[in-house]
């Protein structure tokens, strides 16, 4: 079975679930380190996606402004 491609939304949802588990203290001590590590990976992924999207949107806006000037 092929692993589903991670999207910003799925990463955010998983991160939210992990956060709630930690806040509600429903996570066992044995799982805590693994969950915190996964949360760190998800945060890095989300930050990267946001940065990439910001760059892409900036390029699109620049392109639109250049078309107006032409």
Q: What's the end-to-end separation, in Å? A: 51 Å
What about the largest sheet?
A: none
User: How many helices in DSSP terms?
Assistant: 2
Task: Report the β-strand fraction as a percent range.
Answer: under 5%
Description:
By secondary structure, this protein is mainly α. The protein contains two helices and no strands. Helix 1 (8-23) packs antiparallel against helix 2 (29-69). The longest helix has 41 residues, at 29-69. The chain is rod-shaped, with a radius of gyration of 18 Å.
Architecture blueprint of SSEs:
Layout: H1 8-23, H2 29-69
Task: Provide a short characterization of the protein structure.
With 70 residues, this protein is mostly helical. The protein is 81% helix and 0% strand. The longest helix has 41 residues, at 29-69.
